Amino acid sequence: MTLRQTLTGYFLDAVAASGAAATLPGRLPHGVPAERTIVLGCGKAAAEMARVARAELAGEVSGCVVTRHGHGVTEIVPGIAVIEAGHPVPDAAALHAAQTIMTLAAQAGPADRVIFLISGGGSALLCAPAKGLSFTEKQAMTDHLVRSGAPIEHINLVRRHLSRIKGGRLAALAGARGAELHTYVISDVVGDDPALVASGPSIAAPFEPEAAIGLLEHYGWPVSATTIAAIRANQPEPAQAHPVTTLATNSTALAAVRRRAEADGWNVVNLGGDLRGEASITGSEHAAIARGLRGEPGRHLLISGGELTVKDARADGCGGPNLEYLAGVLTGLAPDDQIAVLAGDSDGIDGTEDNAGGFAMAGGAMPDALATALAMHRTYALFAALGGLVVTGPTRTNVNDIRMIAVGVGASD
Question: Which domains, from first to last, does the chain contain?
Answer without folding.
Answer: 3-12+250-407 (3.40.1480.10), 24-248 (3.40.50.10180)
